[in-house]
UniProtKB/TrEMBL annotation:
This is Chondroadherin-like protein. Pfam families: LRR_8 (PF13855). It comes from Triplophysa rosa. SUPFAM superfamilies: L domain-like (SSF52058). Coiled coil: none annotated.
């Protein structure tokens, strides 16, 4: 199955969209992976190949994930953003990542999950939000996550209030 997906991706992307691997990252074109661990990145490198399926940006300095942050990598299935000092996930930050099945946001500084923070992640199965500062989750924050079967929120500031 994986081979079929890779063949589809490789044949459906025009050759004119050839992009080189970001200089500070390690890319594996056979596995369609990009690894940029601990490079003090402040934004997502714009030269990541569109056909990338696994992106590891662990231990960087991304701060704020704005709307459309990953619009140039629509085929991602796995995204690792552990320890990236993320404090805010804006509405639509992950919009367009309909193939994403695993998202790791552990060890960040996120304090609020907005209604559309995870909008567009219709295939997401695993969401890791451990060890953040989450104290507020807006109604509907997880509404678009229809395939989700694992949500991990350990070590946050959540408090359940009876009204």
């Amino acid at each position: 199955m994986r081979l079929m997906v890779m063949l589809f991706l490789m044949t459906s992307i025009p050759l004119s969209q050839t992009v080189t691997c970001p200089r500070i990252c390690v890319c594996d074109d056979t596995k369609l992976t990009v690894t940029c661990i601990g490079k003090n990145l402040m934004h997502i490198p714009p030269t990541i190949k569109e056909i990338t399926v696994k992106l590891d940006l662990k231990r960087n300095n991304l701060g704020d994930l704005s709307k459309g942050a990953f619009k140039h990598t629509p085929y991602l299935t796995h995204l690792n953003l552990q320890g990236c000092r993320i404090h805010s996930v804006r509405a639509g930050a992950f919009r367009g990542l309909s193939h994403l099945v695993q998202l790791d946001l552990t060890h960040n500084n996120i304090d609020i999950l907005y209604q559309e923070s995870f909008d567009g992640l219709s295939s997401l199965k695993q969401l890791y939000l451990d060890r953040n500062r989450i104290e507020e989750i807006h109604p509907g924050a997880f509404a678009s996550l229809r395939s989700l079967n694992l949500l991990s929120l350990t070590h946050n500031q959540l408090v359940y209030r009876l009204t």
